[in-house]
Write a structure and sequence with these properties.
This protein is of the alpha+beta class. It is built from 17 helices and 11 strands. The protein has 2 domains: about 280 residues, no CATH class; about 110 residues, Leucine-rich Repeat Variant. Helix content is about 40%, strand content about 10%. Strands 4-7-2-1-8 form a 5-stranded antiparallel β-sheet, with helices on both faces. A two-stranded parallel ribbon has the order 3-11. Strands 5-6 form a two-stranded antiparallel ribbon. The longest helix has 19 residues.
Length: about 400
Amino acid sequence: MGLAYQITERAHELGFDLVGIGPAHLLTGTGRYADWLANGYHGDMAYLARPDAVARRQDLSLILPGVRSVVTVGINYHSITPAPDLRADLSRGIIARYAWGDDYHDVLTARLGQLGAFIQARSSQPVAYRAYTDTGPILERALAAGAGLGFVGKNTSLIHPRLGSWLLLGELLLTLDLPPAAAILGPAAGPSQAVPDGTCGNCTRCLDSCPTGALVAPYTLDARRCISYLTIELKGPIPHKLRPLIGNHVFGCDICQEVCPWNRRYARPTTEAAFQPRPGFTSPRLLDLMALDGEVFRRIAARTPVKRARRRGLLRNVAVALGNWGDPVAVPVLAGALRDPEPLIRGHAAWALGRIATPEACHSLEQASITETDEYVRDELRLASLALKE
């Protein structure tokens, strides 16, 4: 057996559903990426536009000198929600599916390390490698598409014609020449059958369904309007005009994948134990989340992607969701949030109380206005009070 075949077999043994091999020098998508940055679609994610990071995306040898090949892997994380429609009950928050289980960074990075060590042991020459999974300056989807793992859809996700887009990607850069090998499905992907051609055709369901209009054109995402960006990557206040459009999303968004015909027809539940839903992560009660203190947050978010938002970011999102729910039952917990040590949480709690607008909510806003000293929060209190008078 050739080394490329052995790598594929070992990747499947490690639990990867897809594995493909491609050359390191044939990079596509760099021009589109430059245009995306020039339009400011990356928002506050300044690290994406750093000159050194842009250069590395164009030339992988700046990451690993002597790189010759890239092994790209994919793993299915799709979990079936126990509820028929998570958006029907506004008293509960929505967490993106990829965050229901263990942190994929930990899972994939460890397995890529095992795959790299396997290659070093089996190679007849010294091999250096670098492993990445959404952690470095690499055009992951372009590499995955080039290695045959699927095609990039209009929702900007990588879509495999037999598995859909519920995929987590990882890359192994190697200083080793390997023959290109189109992606091969692992045993967990199901029985072998003909793979249909991959294309979005005339479908625009993802663009039509995005609540915030983040998909400004086919294959083009304005992150500044994306619910995932707003609830995870954005560290400051969520723009007022976008808050009502977020609904009850508190960490990420799956809408553009849920409506995709490829997923509706071909997606199947993952068999990976690490990505099975943790209790309470599929549809947590907003009132419970708003009451989280630092210690409890650290405990429940440990080893999950949710920790990336930190407590202040998650509770900021929860406050917005409570405001969109609009039920007066949320007033006491929001009033308590006006005394939170984090200004970001206090400011968004003020907005939510202004949306609910009961006498009790108004009283809480008035009392907070007397004692609040942070200028940002004072502005939020003032805007909430003005909204009550309209």
